[in-house]
RNA sequence: AGAGAGAUGGCAGAGUGGUCGAUUGCGGCGGUCUUGAAAACCGUUGACUGUUAAAGGUCCGGGGGUUCGAAUCCCUCUCUCUCUGCCA
């Protein structure tokens, strides 16, 4: 959530930022917001005055009762009725105004960082880095959905039987390479100074709100209605919400956490022609890194996280590129996002395998995640990134490393797998 | 799942209708003392809102109610603990 004070003090910058995110009716929204706030403050002031009178009167009555001046107390009591009626009305007005304010505020996305490229669609994202040789596969190279059948390592039909589409069953070396990647990613994060977390994978409404999934993306999460809990779409939600409603001490900072979890996404309405095999799933595994930083350090932390993800892909010897997302393609809550895409050589497609973002104070404001600086509380900045999401990495490994003898396992994973070929 | 107890400031823990935003202890911060530290002593120490600064207002798990006045009484929801049951 944006900070009301910021909006008021930086009206034009807010409008410009909203426009860069292709938010409709930026001016009207900001004007409406400021209008409601003005009204709200007036009402609040009026209510405060009425309450102050009531409080004073109540104390007076207390004093009179103690002194045994019953008659005078009764007179004073009579005066309170009108104040009470007044404050009741004011309270209701205030509630309505606060609600209106909230309704507008939650529809407003985070503002993009100054460096965010202009643009509306994924095509306008800026390719800022590309590395690794694109493998030259023979004509008869197979896409990963054929390879997994050939080597019998992932079974979609079985998943379909047990659960439904998008819930694959990993078998044999397929299951083992998954476990190997998880351990590799976690070890790399530990070496980079992240603390390991194993969070719950069901979250409540407050947590969903804190990181911005609710109320906006309610339909994208699986909802366990009997207990009103949601399956996490990413470990970002529980790991960031650890710090909801807290004021961190200097000694707690910076917070650097990593966690492996399965992730669940309904992906309602996003199934199209090129969604095959591992390209898009309802359940997948991901290792996520989360940082909580002082505002002045957060962009340095973002770079650090980008470098970390680069390191992983380099070690896996996969070709990849980094996109600086344009304003229109960034998520609702993000101020700056870098997407990592790995090249899957048989499909001849770039597949997103990581998204690294700085949310600045947007999530922190919802989370009430603060720290103290010179006695004053201030919002912190939250960041997160996938490091990495497994299925598309696996797809790229399978496709890029296919040989007549089988699939070659990247060297760095061999000790984790216990084998160097899938054949 | 059944029975009982409980939820108060960073933690522990008082407070059952009236100057209680809350006694006290620990912790934290500042100071005195000390070469330095510890101990001791003195002071200070919740959040949100509001104002140029004040004043003022709100918050004792959440929501609602009674009352001139609620941490304290009533209703309701949630959660925690203990015992019994069940169970990886």
Write the layout of secondary structure elements.
Blueprint: H1 4-9, H2 11-20, H3 26-67, H4 70-107, E1 126-131, H5 144-150, E2 154-155, H6 156-162, E3 169-170, H7 173-191, E4 195-197, E5 202-203, H8 205-210, E6 223-224, E7 229-231, H9 236-241, E8 246-248, E9 255-264, E10 283-293, H10 298-315, E11 320-324, E12 336-344, E13 349-358, H11 362-367, E14 369-373, E15 376-379, E16 381-389, H12 390-400, E17 402-403, E18 406-408, H13 414-417, E19 421-422
Parallel strand pairs: 4-9, 8-14
Antiparallel strand pairs: 1-11, 2-3, 5-7, 6-7, 9-10, 10-16, 11-12, 12-13, 13-16, 14-15, 17-18, 18-19
The chain binds one RNA strand of 88 nucleotides through residues 41, 44-45, 47-49, 51-52, 54-55, 57-63, 65-66, 73-74, 76-81, 83-84, 247, 249, 368, 377.
Task: Tell me about this structure.
This protein has helices at 4-9, 11-20, 26-67, 70-107, 144-150, 156-162, 173-191, 205-210, 236-241, 298-315, 362-367, 390-400, 414-417; strands spanning 126-131, 154-155, 169-170, 195-197, 202-203, 223-224, 229-231, 246-248, 255-264, 283-293, 320-324, 336-344, 349-358, 369-373, 376-379, 381-389, 402-403, 406-408, 421-422. It contains 13 helices and 19 strands. The two termini are 51 Å apart. With 423 residues, it is of the alpha+beta class. The protein folds into two domains: 4-107, Helix Hairpins (Orthogonal Bundle); 122-422, BirA Bifunctional Protein, domain 2 (2-Layer Sandwich), CATH 3.30.930.10. It binds one RNA strand of 88 nucleotides through helix 3 and helix 4.
